[in-house]
Amino acid sequence: MDYIGYVGTYTSNQSEGIYQFTYKDKQLSNISLFAKVKNPKYLTMIDNYIAAACDLETGSGVGVFDYDGNLIDSIVFEERTSCYIGTNDNLLFTANYHGGTATLLKFENQKLQLIKKTLIKQKAGCHQVLTYQDKYLVPCLFLDKIMILNKDFDIVDEIKFEEGAGPRHGVFSKDEKFLYVVGELSNLLYVVDMQTKQIVASEELLENHLSHVKDTAAIRLRDDYLYVSTRTQDVISVIHVDGKNVKRVQVESCAGQHPRDFIIVDNEIIVANRFTNTLSVLPIKDGYVQKETGTVSVPEAVSIVVRSV
């Protein structure tokens, strides 16, 4: 299958906005500027559009672009850019690391509408919004908690972590009985039982008992394996999972520096290495990450989405 991908970036140095690439026959090519916009830090797909948490002329918020790179609609609702944007049907949600807020929006008839902005706590380090049944889960790095919001975006519960864990991003098991969460500050993987809302297991993500070096970032689930990036170490860790049982089986180079984000396409990882201004392809074989097979230049890459064509 062939794909077109989109790369969110910081625009502090070389980048001009969102970049586009082609992924065909396991090769990256046709890198080009897709949309000129400031700090499109995180991207998501909604309907046949690309939505970005970004900076706009009058402040920060969300912009929605068509496949030709045209801005369809935008909305400003904060002073600094959110670090995450996700979607569920026609709803969009963002997390703001600096402001300690989570925001719920609707995209309908090519128009964005702000539904609710919830302040969790100033400088809470909100880093993601996950949907779970009729709830929203917001990992808060500096609170060592995941805050649970109801469908009205009100705080109703929380999941507590050890001090200094720094929960950043998570993914659910296929049956949604367990939530796998990376601790950015502890460099540990945590397993949360979603029935009890308790941590039932943890695993070191780095080798040689290396922990608390910070900067563990993205997590993805494929089959019975989790893949996790750690930026300061420039690696992808592989963890075999079976329900609550988790075991690290590999730590492999990301073929660049500062792997902020990555996606899994078919049997390959495409990783965004911010400090080397590259995207690299890392094949997966029997769950294990192989040596990189291709690298292209993309300035200040920090997030990736793809669509099949």
Which oligomerization state do the chains in this entry correspond to?
A: single chain
Q: Sheet bearing the most strands, described? A: 5 strands, antiparallel
Total of helices: 0
Structural class, by secondary structure, is: mainly beta
Number of strands: 29
How would you state the average pLDDT, rounded?
97
pLDDT below 50 for ≥5 consecutive residues: which ranges? none
Tell me the Rg in angstroms: 18 Å
Helix amount, in percent? under 10%
- End-to-end span in angstroms? 8 Å
Series of H and E elements = EEEEEEEEEEEEEEEEEEEEEEEEEEEEE
Strand content: over 45%
- Which geometry do the CA atoms define? globular
Can you walk through the features of this model?
By secondary structure, the protein is mainly beta. The protein has no helices and 29 strands. It has strands spanning 3-9, 17-24, 27-36, 38-46, 49-56, 59-65, 71-78, 84-88, 91-96, 101-108, 111-119, 130-132, 135-140, 145-149, 155-160, 167-172, 178-183, 188-193, 198-204, 216-222, 225-230, 235-242, 245-253, 259-265, 268-273, 278-285, 288-289, 294-297, 301-308. The strands form seven sheets. Strands 24, 25, 26, 27 and 28 form a five-stranded antiparallel sheet that branches. It has a four-stranded antiparallel sheet with strand order 3-2-1-29, with no helix packed on it. Strands 4-5-6-7 form a four-stranded antiparallel sheet, with no helix packed on it. Strand 10 (101-108) and strand 11 form a beta hairpin. The protein is globular and about 45 Å long. It starts with a strand and ends with a strand. The mean pLDDT is 97.
